[in-house]
Amino acid sequence: MDETLSRKKPTPIGKHVILVTYRDEFIKKEALGLVEAAGYSIASVLDQKRLNHQQYGVGAGKAEEIKSIAEELGTHLVVVDDRLSSSQAHNLAKFTHQEVIDRERLILDIFNSRATTTEAKLQVRLAELKYEIPRAREAVQISLKGEQSGFMGMGEYAVDIKFRALKKQMTLVTKKLEEAKKRRDLFRVSRARINLPLVSLAGYTSSGKTTLFNRLTFETKEESPKLFTTLTTTTRSFEPSNRKKVLLSDTVGFISRLPTYMIEAFKSTLEELTFADLILLMLDASESIVNMEIKYSSCRETLDQLHINPTKILLVMNKLDLASREDKEKRTGLVGDLPNIGISAKTGEGLRKLKVRIAETLYPEPSGAKGFAGEAHEIETFAGPLVEHIDTSPAIDLGSS
């Protein structure tokens, strides 16, 4: 296996884990979703006001509680829903006799399990290296306590060996991703020649992007309520109105508290949004107003980091079939600065209006054409059919459903 794509994954004896998270219900629910997406089941959930205590990340009393519960339930893995330094993870693991991973490592493990294309695997590996390098020196120093340090000492030697190896891998992965970017650029040249507008789906993980993509293009991409189902970009064409074709792109999703280095690692995938003529920003309308507000703010923050022009954004309130009709005004009030439309990608409610809005936005001139083709087409170009499964042999839906 390519060294740049391989990493030793956690090997807990059992699948049951202890989750330590915050008391906030939104944060707790999202943490539970991450643990489930990673393939674990929850043995116990502990909450705490702060997870940035110096010695363990969690407080000393909470560490005692974790140790007691682990002995009682026979677990072997603790997930802490925040960033831990190497020393904090080491101290907590040593005290509780458990393997310990933090939120960022958990997300990276989910990415690892979801990545199927070469480019997605490279992007995940780059994010892992950016996670590991700052911890490399500290981790090695912890493991080599008692050895001679300083000039030519064994401790210093081992630290430098590991650090240089990680830096070398990062250089190699970055070079391969640059080659992948060149292939993406060729796709864009191909698209420019056929002169079709590009619509990109964006939004929080599990907001229903892939369901809408499949509904509009008659594709069969995997749909799942689990977080981070989609890590690769797929582009297809469809007709929002008669004889008016557009390209529709399904992209990686967003999540709250996603570190900047992860967004940067997936930049080549997220970059698709910067080239879009229209972005459909999707929100799950079936959630509470408070949760919608948190997710909307997180999405806008990520789009701002990508320097997306807000005038290109159309907010799509999805899952109306599950939403409370009484909360319609409250939902639209959350996003007063953006045009919005309500749909259900699952049942088809509102899709005709969405197609009209897409057509009117991208083809503002009167066309005189009526009706909807509702059929996806492959577009022949000099490079062959424009069927873009961005596999260069993938955010942050960072999943779609």
Report on the architecture of this protein.
The chain has helices at residues 25-37, 60-73, 86-96, 103-114, 118-143, 154-194, 209-217, 260-265, 267-274, 289-305, 328-334, 351-362, and strands at 16-21, 41-47, 77-80, 99-102, 198-203, 234-241, 244-250, 278-284, 313-318, 340-342, 380-381, 384-385, 388-389. The chain has 401 residues and is α/β, with parallel strands linked by helices. The chain has three domains: 15-111, Rossmann fold; 115-174; 195-389, Rossmann fold (3-Layer(aba) Sandwich), CATH 3.40.50. The strands form three sheets. It has a seven-stranded mixed sheet, sandwiched between helices. A four-stranded parallel sheet has the order 2-1-3-4, with helices on both faces. Strand 6 (234-241) and strand 7 form a beta hairpin. The model is unreliable at 6-13, 146-154 and 367-401 (pLDDT under 50).
Structural class: alpha/beta
**Percent range for helical residues?**
40-55%
Uncertain segments are 6-13, 146-154, 367-401
Rounded Rg? 23 Å
N-to-C span: 30 Å
Number-wise, the strands total 13
The largest β sheet comes out as: 7 strands, mixed
- Give the CATH architecture of the largest domain: 3-Layer(aba) Sandwich
Tally of structural domains: 3
Shape descriptor: globular
| Mean pLDDT metric | 81
Could you name the key traits of this structure?
single chain, globular, disordered C terminus, alpha/beta, 44% helix, Rossmann fold, 12 helices, 7-stranded mixed beta sheet, 3 domains, 4-stranded parallel beta sheet, 401 residues
